[in-house]
Amino acid sequence: MPISRLQPASIVPLTCSEIAQARAIIQAGPLCVARIQRRMKIGWSRASDLAEYIVGFDALPEVAKRSRSARS
Q: Is 22 within 8 Å of 47 (Cβ atoms)?
């Protein structure tokens, strides 16, 4: 069954491939959720899910923390 683009990112498990790709993007430069989003051609929520998984919530940029807190 294909994943809907409108489905919340939190209910779709992160894949090993996505994690590896996002980790490489983060290691190549400063942590920026929008950069992950653009390079991987994914949505903001998915990119911030990946960033949070890799670096943890406390290391996210302030704009990402506010956005993620608002979703809860």
A: yes
